[in-house]
Design a protein that fits this description.
The structure holds two protein chains of two kinds.
Chain A (H helix, E strand, L loop, with lengths): L7 H15 L4 H18 L11 H28 L8 E6 L5 H13 L3 E6 L5 E6 L5 H19 L2
Antiparallel strand pairs in A: 1-3, 2-3
Helix pairs in contact in A: 1-2, 3-5, 4-5
Chain B lengths: L5 H27 L3 H4 L1 H26 L5 H30 L39
Helix pairs in contact in B: 1-3, 3-4
Classes of the chains: A mainly alpha, B mainly alpha.
């Protein structure tokens, strides 16, 4: 199993993406997709040293949560843009202390923060223990930090365990 | 839209109007928000839902109007979600760099300039990642 499919998650992603890109559910497309799904991870294995294990089901649940948050929070940002005057806006820099340690987990965390409206992740500290986040409207910065940590980081800690 | 039921036309029209409205609101945010960092929120996000609604409208139009499934829209949204945070991150890092190293060139804005996170380390824009941390790729 691990000799032929060193990276099952990447293989599944490649096969699905190939079929989606060709937009055609015939035997030839699926067969070529499977060939790519086996060949690419085999040949690119040297470039994935020490990658963390990902728990698949919690990752799917996390994806659903983030998609839902993107939709809900888009309406919040639209409301801020339309109805909140600049003098009532409280933009703030948030310093988020990180408990995640693997680069992959921190990347997903930072990407989530950027995609969920109201926050953009801007930088990581040189020691890798803090994330710099800009919030569009955060009257209470420490509450905003606690919310991001509880909602996303806690779940990511379980996915990248 | 030939051969499509009236409700399908209404659905596609509503999705297009919703998507266009969110794209417009995102652009309006670019105009009216006070400084660069706040303006960054508009195009990275208000547009995600706008584009999402337009892509769903495209899938619905091909399926309900022409009777065929298209999946390319899923790839468009996937690549958008993967790349949007990167460009926002690069713009933010350039802004941090200009705030520190070219005073007067950049407006700090209402949030001011971010403080260093701790005594031991600065932000990675100003200081190389320490050895053995998540940002250090030496030896990988």
């Amino acid at each position: 199993m691990s000799r032929v499919l060193p990276h099952p998650g990447l293989s599944a992603l490649l096969a699905v993406m190939w079929v989606v890109m060709v937009n055609d559910l015939t035997f030839g497309t699926i067969f070529l997709g499977l060939v790519i799904a086996v060949a690419v991870p085999l040949f690119s294995a040297p470039w994935w040293p020490g990658r963390p294990r990902v728990r698949f089901l919690p990752a799917l649940a996390y994806l659903a949560l983030v998609l839902r948050d993107i939709v809900v929070a888009n309406f919040e940002v639209a409301a801020i843009i339309l109805f909140k005057p600049n003098h009532a806006l409280r933009p703030a820099w948030l310093t988020v202390p990180l408990e995640l340690t693997s680069p992959e987990a921190i990347t997903v965390f930072a990407g989530t923060i950027s995609l969920t409206p109201g926050t953009v992740s801007c930088d990581i500290s040189a020691c890798g223990r803090y994330l710099l986040v800009h919030a569009l409207h955060a009257p209470d910065p420490s509450a905003a930090v606690a919310k991001v940590k509880a909602r996303y980081e806690a779940r990511l800690k379980r996915i990248f365990a | 839209m030939s051969g499509a039921a009236p409700w399908a036309e209404w659905l596609v029209s509503a999705l297009i109007v919703l998507g266009a409205a969110f794209a417009l609101i995102g652009s309006w945010g670019l105009v009216r928000l006070p400084s660069l960092m706040e303006r960054l929120h508009g195009p990275t996000k208000a547009t995600t839902l706008g584009l999402g609604a337009l892509l769903i409208a495209s899938i619905a139009w091909f399926q309900l109007g022409k009777g065929m499934w298209t999946t390319h829209e899923l790839l468009v949204s996937l690549f958008l979600f993967v790349t949007a945070p990167i460009s926002a991150n690069m713009i933010a890092k350039v802004h941090l760099h200009r705030l520190r190293h070219a005073p007067g060139a950049a407006e700090p804005g209402p949030a001011g300039t971010p403080a260093a996170p701790s005594e031991a380390a600065d932000w990675a824009t100003h200081e190389a990642p320490h050895l053995g941390t998540a940002g250090d790729f030496e030896g990988d």
